[in-house]
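Subject: Interface between my chains keeps coming out wrong

I've been trying for a while to get a sensible model of this assembly. When I model each chain on its own everything looks fine, but I need the whole thing in one frame so I can look at the contacts. Pasting all components below, labels as-is. Any help appreciated, I'm running out of ideas.
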Amino acid sequence: MTDSQPSAGETPSDSTVPKVVVSRLSLYLRELQRLQAAGQETISSSQLGTLLGFSDAQVRKDLGFVGQFGYPGVGYRCDELVLAMRDILGTNQPWPVAMVGVGNLGLALLGYRGFGRQNFSIVAAFDADPAKVGQTIQGLTIQPLDELATTVQEKHVRLGMIVVPGPQAQEVSDQLVAAGVEGIVNFAPVTLTLPPHVQVVGVDLAIELEQLSFAVTNKLVKTLPQE
Amino acid sequence: MTDSQPSAGETPSDSTVPKVVVSRLSLYLRELQRLQAAGQETISSSQLGTLLGFSDAQVRKDLGFVGQFGYPGVGYRCDELVLAMRDILGTNQPWPVAMVGVGNLGLALLGYRGFGRQNFSIVAAFDADPAKVGQTIQGLTIQPLDELATTVQEKHVRLGMIVVPGPQAQEVSDQLVAAGVEGIVNFAPVTLTLPPHVQVVGVDLAIELEQLSFAVTNKLVKTLPQE
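Reply #2:
Try treating it as a single job with all components included. I did that and got this:
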């Protein structure tokens, strides 16, 4: 984890972007996409901050990471900001993803349409269970794990999605790394040991419920809009 | 959505907590739980900010929402902060949850252990499919939807988890609301219309992948630790 943030106006160095800024960029992006859909063309940092509950200064600092600066008297242009965010997040290009583990969660994720909207596409699915191999789900034929390396290369897969039980997760991630995958999203409830050049994001579904229990506990009135 | 934040030191009013502060509380909580597990007893706002990529001032402002203030020369006590966070998030008490829709994702969520760790417990599961009703999964017998209202009351269910296909989500949420549920976590890819007293959180799994594509695109070195 990195410790420093660039000061306002400083050109950001990639190695200094804190992880929380990344998740804020996703939030900014979805807010901006909603505004675009509603026909809004420009926005000020304080408006954007108000919508998301950040300070004006925080928004300007975060947008500094993106390398975007507003126009005096106009603010930021939504379309420019969306393009710049997607550029930074990497989602202006398609991301071929390989999934390993086609259990219940794997089946659900294969059918999840939100991935495609942000340019992620599951192009290969693997399972260790011979009974599953050869089945076709959502247009993908489930492959055995020994085809992983070849398929990752043939289909230019860059990201792996681990949806196996905890005890199998490390071995599967080792295979994905050996095959050349650059990043792993880990749905298994274990911490993976990975070489430093491979990125990893763990998914914690309890966070969504925690937001809800907070809202109910505090009887908020619609402060938590859906995505 | 609310627009204002309390200034530092001001006692927070529930209706002024912006939604993004809520998600930051979950991040603070997990970081503090990790620190506790590692034996750390106290932490300063700047240390916590550094770990999460927030400014010192942002941390102090956020902890102001929690009503926690540090000790001069000591900082914050991790155990006090964890208790206070869980108090605010509502997770110092158990949350009985009713799930509707036992498809692939529903089955996966029924087996997800991360919920229990944060005090969420799925105590009832419903499905419209007669072929599924009566099956026992993870110790729960799947019930027909016409038992929803009675069961929600009998089991003191406060939260509903919607895991049905998009076209069924509104009807199911109406039933949950009529049964007295106070909050809904919505995995269906639609926006629900709900009365203002019912809280809702939508789950967007693409955000995790977006964090990963960012990290890979920017060749970060381990800035994205797993949960």
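Reply #3:
Confirming on my end. Chain B touches chain A through 89 residues (CB under 8 Å).
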